[in-house]
Backbone:
């Protein structure tokens, strides 16, 4: 099943500030998400109490996305540097 991946303006802005190595991993994640909403080669966890919302870990960064399986869309809406308050900001 192929998915169309959408990236929010906020996430794109944060991506541009990432170090090159993390940006490359982000690109790999986007490519993997176009194939599966739960890619096996990344550290992905479903967020509790959030319907179809997932977190992918890219080093010190967290990519938060929503999977709209029926519409075959993935929406990356947050890209956050890991901190004590990361998950409070979702």
Residues:
């Amino acid at each position: 099943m192929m998915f169309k991946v959408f990236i929010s303006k906020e996430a794109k802005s944060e991506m541009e500030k990432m170090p090159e190595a993390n940006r490359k991993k982000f690109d790999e994640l986007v490519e993997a998400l176009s194939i599966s909403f739960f890619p096996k080669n990344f550290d992905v966890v479903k967020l509790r109490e959030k319907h179809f919302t997932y977190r992918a870990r890219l080093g010190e960064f967290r990519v938060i996305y929503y999977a709209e399986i029926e519409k075959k869309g993935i929406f990356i809406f947050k890209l956050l540097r890991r901190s004590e308050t990361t998950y409070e900001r979702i």
